[in-house]
Specification:
Shape: elongated
Order of helices and strands: EHHHHHHHHHE
Structural class: mainly alpha
Strand order of the largest sheet: 1-2
Distance between the termini: 26 Å
């Protein structure tokens, strides 16, 4: 008589998955430095930069942080994000392996959504250089033509559309990931249902709002990078001693026959 024993065959993938998670940590640190270079200056006053009279909200705050920055500072701030963007895509393999033992319907969509968000992020980050440089040139020229004055706002619209799309991908992917970890057998421990980009970015926003002084000023535009740094740090540590529970029947799992000893009966008397 034969029984069935479920054996997880993906254990050898956890080493590369952890390395991919470290790639996400490295990318997040580079993006954090880039955010500090782009948006970490004390905000300029409209009294010294008349262009700011035309903008408020997030657009006005971003321009006020970039106007005092040098071209070199803005360039390196943007390039750090663009050049390390592929590391985020590598880090998505880490999420794929962490969720893969679960059913594809639950494990694949969040990975695709989060990957799409990280694929859009380098465009958004790199665009801050052109946006800031244009605003600096217009402000310094003293020209007050309607077309020039409106240019930073027009550039902000183009920049914020993919920004909104990537945030939507991260929100939906985060919710789906939480459900997957909570309801299925994954390589992540159950408590990882509360650790996803949506939660971690919210924590990042809280950190930037509460940290005072010069440090708070330096990280005032780094909410997303701090959140991603927290997310990939925790998820990489969570996979360190991952031991998926038995019972999943998806790729990466195999059902191997296990012999059950049979009782032999001797001849009846």
């Amino acid at each position: 008589m034969w029984g069935v024993g479920v054996v997880w065959t993906g254990g050898n993938r956890l080493g590369p998955a952890r390395l991919a998670g470290i790639a996400g940590v490295v990318a997040s640190i580079a993006w954090l430095i880039g955010d500090i270079l782009l948006l970490g200056k004390p905000m300029a006053s409209p009294e010294h930069h008349p262009l700011l009279h035309n903008y408020g909200g997030t657009t006005g705050d971003s321009l006020a942080a970039m106007l005092p920055a040098s071209t070199t500072r803005l360039a390196w701030g943007a390039l750090l994000g663009v050049l390390t963007g592929p590391l985020y895509l590598a880090a998505c393999r880490h999420l794929h392996q962490g969720l893969r033992p679960a059913r594809r319907l639950l494990s694949l969509p969040p990975v695709l959504l989060l990957t799409a968000g990280f694929a859009l992020a380098p465009f958004v980050h790199g665009s801050f250089f052109s946006w800031g440089q244009a605003a600096k040139a217009i402000d310094a020229s003293g020209e007050r033509s309607p077309a020039l004055t409106a240019l930073p706002g027009d550039m902000a619209v183009v920049l914020f559309i993919p920004y909104a799309v990537l945030l939507a991908c991260w929100v939906l992917g985060s919710v789906w990931m939480a459900v997957c970890v909570l309801r299925s057998a994954t390589a992540f421990p159950r408590w990882m249902c509360a650790v996803n980009p949506l939660i971690c970015i919210s924590v990042g926003a809280l950190v930037t709002a509460l940290v005072p002084g010069s440090v708070g000023t330096a990280i005032q535009g780094a909410q997303l990078s701090i959140g991603n740094l927290l997310f990939f740090s925790v998820s990489t540590l969570a996979l360190r001693d991952a031991r998926p529970s038995a019972g999943a029947h998806e790729p990466g799992w195999s059902a191997e026959p296990a012999r059950v000893p049979q009782r032999r009966e001797g001849p009846s008397a």
